[in-house]
Design a protein that fits this description.
Helices cover 44% and strands 17% of the residues. It contains 15 helices and 20 strands. The strands form four sheets. Strands 2-1-5-4-3 form a five-stranded antiparallel sheet.
């Protein structure tokens, strides 16, 4: 008999274990696994901070610096290709002129080419030349009619320097075709190198085509050669595979490199392959496969900022609190529920002679007391409903309160990490290399804006110089439309007569017709009420006082300011009013910070060598890196007195102090999220159905025989519900039998016909 009971108990336990697959054990096991994984992550991974030779932010900054150089070089060379092609087409559309006249007009408008020449294609004879001698023998004139015959090409001079030759076709009826050739240097234009920085341009095989800032140092030459080999190899990768998905920014291949170390200084480089302005779309220049490499020496850090003891202690505290929380759930929720499961099965099978073992806490205690009352009712004991045992004071402590207690234990670990521990504060030390990079990049952006505005005016001057008095308004409109299509900077292009009327127009409706009169400036800014209006003006000598006017889109200027890693970049005028920005702004409003205003004033002080870029670390309201650079270098943009201002919040940089703070917050968030998910799962699957079951079990014990009990889930709570339903049905049948027996014992009662 004892062996039979033992076998039945083992079968019961196996059935109980099978039901646990969808019951209380999975959320508790998941919580244990989450806490163990988070403790391991905290101890062995999150604490590895500041171990590198230089902060990651310095490496990222060098990558952005090289990207700036690649954009500047590609933009400059693309402009040269476009300018030569448009100039040749404008001359070809008018009356024939001599080669000397072509080169003279070209030189008076643009001063950016090292040398220019005109060659008769059929004979190969040099017709005219300006500037340095070009290696014209390197040109194969027989291939000009082929595919990409007029594409730019690189040639090497006798002294070893490399030039980019840009070609344009001059063609007039009745005259032999001529080739317009212009040579450009491959040096990166307009990039501020500062102190101790070098920059170089590489070809596809890693050979250095040009360099700046190298000096005569043998170590720098060796370091450049090493960087060039590595960068050329990495530049061959697909752009989609060279960066993390969704990183955005530079559309081409770019990255950073670590070099040699000497006297506590580590060489750090960035590289960027020339890429088109739109991802996946190249230009004639990008087909050359050029790569820009820049490098600088950064101070090495030999001590880690992160305290490994803190992370080990945090992991230990998590294990202790987690073990306490999990143990509390196992002792006060899981075991009583499993005990109820076995007891309800026993009562449901009819084993009524042993009293129900009562749990001590929560809804399990209430359900256990109700089960024992039902057991006594099935035995027919008198007064069972009223005199049955009730849960004590601890039985009034609900399972939900126990769950809240576990949440408080886990929150005691997560909350300090989220709110107080390892805060960076305002005394974070920002590496000087990053401050210098911010200043130099801001100066580079200022030069880009100045060059873009000067190039725009040069384009207008080139168009105005080839217009003739015999041209009809339709022909003028055609020239303007072609120019506007080649340069997306213009919202509107038009020819303005001296009386203020428009002779020809392309694009949007002009704003300033008949307004400027005789005081026409080469470049002016006007407040239209909702955005700044930039207007460029170029006299057309052949049109009797008329001029070509171009209205630039302010978005064109704003697009020049959008560079990753620089934060908020603004253009301010001489009164320190915001004219443009890479972010949302209100035109002609003051700068939002007095420190920025002071920095702009300092940058524009005309003392010593004159105005120059400035940079500072601002501590008010958080650590930030600010820089200001006025537009210097001449041209029509100089009288605007614009200044470029940038502000980068240090908390967005990979500086060790902020990395420690971010990882501390991350650990707290992971702990909070894991605890909320597992405890929420437990509340939905177990606690809430258990509370409902306790109310229904007490109702059945109090005499409710009509309400059918349905299980919510197929787990322990559902199994107890099914057992209670079996008990309810047995009690209902028992009541019917008792009622029938009482009726049969009633005097005068007769048995119906056909019944014995």
């Amino acid at each position: 008999m004892a062996a039979s009971r033992s076998k039945r108990r083992r079968r019961t336990r196996r059935r109980a274990d099978m039901s646990l697959l969808g019951g209380i054990r999975p959320p508790i096991a998941a919580l244990s696994a989450v806490l163990l994984a988070l403790a391991a992550l905290t101890a062995f991974q999150l604490g590895h901070i500041g171990k590198g030779a230089v902060p990651p932010a310095v490496l990222t900054s060098q990558q952005h610096f090289a990207e700036d150089g690649a954009i500047a070089l590609r933009t400059s060379l693309d402009e040269s290709v476009t300018d030569i092609g448009r100039t040749a087409s404008l001359f070809s559309a008018g009356a024939p002129v001599s080669p000397d006249s072509v080169l003279d007009k070209l030189g008076s408008v643009y001063q950016k080419w090292r040398g220019t020449a005109v060659i008769e294609i059929k004979s190969g004879r040099l017709e005219a030349q300006r500037g340095e001698n070009l290696p014209l023998t390197a040109l194969d004139l027989t291939t000009l009619n082929g595919e990409n015959g007029l594409a730019p090409r690189m040639v090497r001079l006798e002294d070893g320097q490399v030039r980019l030759l840009t070609l344009g076709l001059l063609s007039w009826p009745g005259r032999p075709q001529e080739l317009l050739v212009a040579s450009s240097s491959l040096k990166v234009p307009g990039v501020s190198l500062g102190k101790g920085r070098a920059i170089a341009v590489l070809d596809a095989s890693g050979h250095v085509l040009s360099s700046s800032g190298i000096g005569s140092s043998e170590r720098a030459d060796k370091q450049l050669a090493a960087f060039a080999r590595t960068a050329a190899e990495k530049a061959k990768r697909n752009p989609l595979q060279s960066k993390e998905p969704g990183s955005g920014g530079f559309p081409g291949v770019s990255g950073s490199l670590l070099g040699d170390s000497a006297a506590g200084q580590r060489s750090v480089a960035g590289y960027a392959k020339l890429s088109g302005p739109t991802p996946g779309e190249g230009t004639d220049v990008t087909a050359l496969g050029l790569t820009v490499v820049s490098f600088v020496s950064a101070t090495e850090q030999h001590s880690a900022v992160g305290d490994s003891f803190f992370w080990i202690a945090a992991a230990g505290a998590l294990l202790a609190l987690g073990a306490l929380a999990v143990g509390l759930l196992v002792v006060t929720v899981q075991r009583p529920l499993l005990q109820l499961f076995l007891e309800s099965r026993r009562i449901g099978r009819g084993d009524l002679h042993r009293p129900v073992t009562l749990p001590k806490y929560g809804e399990a205690a209430r359900i256990g007391a109700a089960l024992d009352r039902l057991r006594r009712q099935l035995l027919g004991e008198p007064g069972a409903p009223a005199d049955s045992p009730r849960p004590g004071r601890r039985g009034r402590i609900g399972t939900r309160a126990l769950l809240v207690l576990c949440a408080v234990l886990l929150l005691a670990w997560s909350a300090p990490l989220l709110l107080t521990l390892n805060r960076a504060g305002t005394s974070v030390k920002v590496p000087q290399t990053i401050v210098d990079d911010q200043r130099e990049r801001t100066e580079t952006v200022a030069d880009r804006v100045r060059r873009a505005l000067n190039e725009g005016h040069a384009d207008l001057t080139a168009v105005a110089s080839v217009l003739t008095a015999k041209a009809t308004p339709a022909e003028l409109t055609s020239v303007l439309e072609r120019t506007r299509a080649e340069h997306g900077r213009y919202a509107s292009l038009y020819v303005l007569k001296p009386d203020g009327t428009v002779l020809a127009r392309a694009g949007a409706e002009p704003h300033l017709t008949g307004v400027r009169g005789g005081s026409r400036e080469a470049l002016a800014v006007t407040d239209t009420g909702h955005e700044p209006l930039l207007t460029e003006y170029a006299e057309a000598p052949a049109l009797g006082g008329a001029a070509v006017v171009g209205e630039l889109r302010i978005d064109f200027v704003n697009a020049l300011l959008r560079r990753p890693g620089m934060g908020e970049v603004r253009v301010v005028d001489a009164k320190h009013r915001v004219v443009g920005s890479n972010n949302g702004y209100r035109a002609f409003t003051k700068l939002p910070d007095a420190a920025l205003d002071s920095l702009v004033t300092s940058a524009n002080q005309k003392t010593g060598k004159g105005p120059g870029s400035r940079a500072a670390v601002l501590r008010d309201g958080g650590t930030s890196i600010a820089a200001a650079a006025p537009l210097t270098g001449g041209g029509v943009a100089q009288p605007l007195d614009w200044t470029i201002v940038s502000l980068q919040h240090a908390k967005g940089l990979e500086i060790p102090a902020y990395t420690v703070q971010n990882r501390t917050v991350l650990a707290g968030l992971l702990g909070l999220t894991g605890a909320a998910a597992c405890l929420g799962w437990l509340h939905i699957i177990v606690v809430r159905p258990l509370r409902t079951l306790a109310e229904r079990a007490e109702a059945v014990a109090d005499g409710d025989r009509r309400t059918v009990l349905y299980p919510t889930h197929h787990d322990e709570v559902g199994a107890v519900t099914r057992s209670l339903e079996v008990i309810r049905q047995r009690l209902q049948e028992q009541r019917k039998r008792d009622a029938g027996a009482d009726a049969s014992r009633t005097p005068g009662r007769t048995t119906p016909a056909g019944r014995n």
